[in-house]
Each structure stands twice: as structure tokens, then as C-alpha cells.
Write a structure and sequence with these properties.
The complex is a heterodimer of chains A (237) and B (197). Chain A is built from three helices and eight strands. Chain A is α+β, with helices and mostly antiparallel strands. In chain A, a hairpin with a 6-residue loop joins strand 4 and strand 5. The chains are: A alpha+beta (237), B mainly alpha (197).
Amino acid sequence: MGGVKDDDRPELQPPILQGLGQAVPQVDPPLALRARVLGSVAGAPTARSVPTRSAPWLLATAASLVLAAGLAIYTSQLRGRVGALESDLRDARARATAAEQRAIDAQQAVAGTRITVAVLTAPDVARIDLAGQAPAAPGAAARAFWSRSRGMVFTASNLPALPPGRVYQLWVVTAQPAPISAGLLTPDAQGSVNETFNTPSDIPQPVALAVTIEPAGGVRSPTGERYLVGTVVGRPA
Amino acid sequence: MWMLLAAVLGSPAALESRQADRASVARIARGDQSAFAELYDRHVRLVYSLALRILQNGADAEDIVQEVFAQVWAQAGRYDASRGAVAAWMLTLTRSRAIDKLRAKRARPEAAADASAAESVVDLAAAQDLDLLSAEQVTRLQRALKELPDAQRTALELAYYEDLTHVEVAARLGEPLGTVKTRIRQAVMKLREALAE
């Protein structure tokens, strides 16, 4: 059977296309995604360091001239090597993806450090010390630094290992009746947590923080046992 | 043509938002991270929601959000304002990357390697002249989608959210090819009427 690829796709004209993209149910992403995305570009090259428009054009022109000159001579040899090249390309792509991921991880680690320093040195920083709650986690402890302008840094230690299908969830208690979820926490093998969160400007100043255990994926309002609780200690002047 | 103009002109609020986006992109091109954060806060919901609808997986949708915004950061200096609204551009990127990821997950190596296949449904040159639809237009479109016969809506959604060809939609639904083409054409006509009201 011949290899004619079926690319007969329905013609979805632009306004319909645009509309279908917008017409999906609108869902808020997790709070923690903001810090991840903003952190991932901190220090990354911006458009400033990208070559100007003229440079790629010149490179493309030069490349095509060289290609035209060499093409007649090398065509038959190139044909024979296409199969091997395709295989190399797949391998290179896989390696690039892994390298990209390592670079992203490294960027995120640096970004996390930058955000931490920014929060700790913010003029409006408030400190919250959390104590482990009996019977769930009497040996656990945590400290948070909250800056409305720069975000929140949260560190915890000695949190019990999570059973399968469960996660820790961090709650912000304010003057409003319902606690507000800041995000989900997963401790490392030593029971430690080190996270940064954004602090949306429409959340009132926190009075206290709490960590509960919840089903994986988190919940809208706390249902599980409290593991850590603490009230604001140092307030900005 | 009339529909295109209506989509482009929009309401005063939409115009303000377009201008705010363009100002943000100009600042992002100079490395302004607070402008980047503003753009994120304005449009992450749109981007995340479309990615989530296509990939049906929160973690994958989050990856797409990061990729799209990283691309905006990297290409802000090259963004040509005459191409259309920033938000419309970001939605196009979202759909294209999400479809790529969907294909990669289904282990279709020829499709994953060919990034341009994801754009073949959309005439990008035309799409780039577009703005977002207004909230009112989106509501009309959502109502029209709900009122479509199930068979038409299902076929249309497979074509758009999974970027399937007519043949693939027919195979997925176990329907004749001609039937699928007719259903999609009828669905598109009804949506166009809804937008033209």
C-alpha cells in the first residue's frame, strides 16, 4: 500500500478556531505554577539576546548559496545517508530533551534561591512559626516568611511520610471565614519541605497558617487532620 | 469577512486589554519580569484551561503553560504587533504544543517529529490577524456547541481538540467518512451562524 498520508483535516476557519479555544471550561491552575513559571525565566535569555532580524536572513541566504553549489555533487550520497541521519536526529532530540529538563531544573533551583532571598529581605515580611500537632506530628516544625509584595517561603522538617494517595496541603487563615489554600506539599525522604509560593494581592494579610493531610490533588477546604499550626510572629512595622 | 472584522474590532474593554498586552510584551522584550508576571496573571487561566481540555491531565497542562510562557519570554522581542492580539497568539501556541504532546504520548513518532503537522488545520497567516472573541461571543459559541446534536459536537471536538483528520475521526467513531465530513461541516455552519448573530 502506498504511503500517501491522510492530512485531510476539517477546515476550521479562524474565528471558530479562536472561539473553540476559548470556549473550554475555564479552570484556575494551581497557585504553585506561578512561581514555577516566573522562576523558570528568571535569568533566561530574553528577546534582547536573540539575533536581530537581519542576521538570520543573511545566514539563511549564505546557507542556501552553499547548499546550491554543493547539492549537485552530494545528492546521491545524501540520499543514502538519510535513514542513518533520521535515527541520529531522534537520539539527539531525546538527549536535548533530557538536557533541557536538567537546565530547567537548575534554573528552578536558582530561581527558588532568588525568590527566598527576595522574600527574606522584603520590607513587608512577616514570620509565622508553626508547631507540630499531636497526635499527628508532634515532632514536626515549620517556619514561613510572608511578604505581600514578594511571595512566601515555607520550610518544614520532620513531617511524617505520606501514605499513598495523600498529600499535605498548606492553608492561609485570614480574617475571612474560609481558609485559603496556598498549595500542596510533598516532603522529601527526610520529611523536609522547602517551597516558595506566590502571594496574590487579593488575599488579606494572614493571621495564621496550617498544614493538613488531604487526598492527593488537594481539596477546596480542609478536611483532614492538622499536622502543623502557627500564628504570625513578627509583623512588618 | 464581516465575522473577521467583528472579531478584530471587539469592545472597548477588549481594546484596552489588547493594548495592555502589547505594552507588557514590549516591556518583556526588555527583560521586565514584572511585566511578564502581569501577562501571566491576565492569561494563565485561558492557556491552562485549553491545555487541560486537550491533554486531560493537570501535570501535562502545567508543562504546556510553562512552555508557552517561556516561548513568550524568549520571543517577545520578535513579536510583531501587526500580527494580531498577544492572547490569540498564546492560544495558538497552546493548542499547537498541547497537540504535539498528545501525539507524543500516543507514541506516534512521525507525528511528534513533524511539528508543522499540528499547525496544518490552522492557516496561521489568517489566524494571526485575529483577536480573542469577546466574552459575549464565547457565551454564544458555548450555547451553540451545547445545542449541537451529540454526533456533530463529538465529531467537531475530535477534529479540534485532538487534531484528527476526517479519516481518523471516522475510524474513532466507527462511522462512514462521508457522514463524518457532513457532520463536521454542519457543526461548523451552526457555530458560524451563532457568531454572526
